[in-house]
Write a structure and sequence with these properties.
Layout (H helix, E strand, L loop, with lengths): L11 H20 L5 H7 L10 H24 L1 H20 L4 H29 L2 H32 L2 H22 L14 H13 L1 H31 L6 H26 L1 H25 L6 H27 L6 H25 L6 H22 L4 H4 L2
Amino acid sequence: MSAPRYSAKLGFVEQVSLLALMISMVALSIDVMLPALADIAGDLKAGGANERQYIVTFLFFGMAIGQMLYGPVSDSTGRKPAIYFGFGLFLIGCLTSIFAVNFEMMLFGRFLQGLGVAGPRIVTLALIRDQYEGRAMARFVSLVMTVFILVPILAPALGQSILFIGNWHMIFAVLFGLGLAALIWFALRHEETLVPEKRTKLSLGRTARAIREVFMNRIAFGFTMVGGFVFSAFLGYLTMSQQIFQDIYGVGDLFAVYFGLLAIAIGMASFVNARLVMRLGMRRLAYYALTTLTVLSAGFLVYTLALDGPPPLPVMVGYLMISFFCLGILFGNCNAMAMEPLGHIAGVAAAVVGSITTFVSMGLGTLIAQMFNGTVLPLVAAFAVLGAISLLCMFWTLRRTGPEQQHA
């Protein structure tokens, strides 16, 4: 096995910090503004109470398109040009949002942010693969993701802190500053990792063949859809979380605390999954997590329907923490299982799987969030129904696989 080929300019710790920041721009762009959604919608005269949710979903819309593009482009031009272009679009999107004079302009800015930030998010993973392999790659990615997990915990608190001293425009200004800092840091310190002789000609046919293979391969398609269904429910939570905690439960500025507490559950699940996956296998863990999520949500739905009003806040938080722990088990395993049979086209396949997952979750997640009616019922029902659909999809996916695949 060859030694890691990381940039001569950077030390190991600096490279982990830089790439973690670049990957974290997606989560930061979503979570930092959740406390400000009501203010943005009010100032820009959005149509209704649920219209504020589009501020989140339009970023995912841009990401869904961007994920499909950056992988093949970076294979052709090199990693750095693709990342430069992505950051450029992201910065333009931030400026558009800062100076938005109506809600439509804000949504266009968010779309550009999503389209742009998909570049650093996708290409950074390819950049890591260029330099590391085997256990060295697993160690590096684990360190990067450890830093990444901190972002959903801290980002809403950062957004709330900004609102204490300024308005929502300043949140986008902070995003612009962080994006510009990451771009300059990357440009000055990180070297190109894809040498010219290893680059491939940009080909729409190659991408089309990868899309066809994902759809035709039962394992790849099945677990891509499971991931999409599962993430749909989570996206529904993301887009209505501010309404649930502030409008229903009236937690006010403590919203960031509750949001961060639930994010910790996902981080804990990632840690537990890393310790158990070698012993139990991805599919067994995913089955246990999905079954628990579905049964728990179905029971909690019945409990919620029987109440005269919303569940008590501690009970709701407890339910969500267990649900998010299950989601944390599912996120990484579903993506890994979808990629299992696609190793020969890993780069472009990762872009295709990620894009399909995002498109599915964006459509269903937006539908779920738009059903918000001042209660938690749409969210709980979504977890129960999509959990059941995901279980059926998993059974269909594994129905004709061999014993050796069943225990992967």
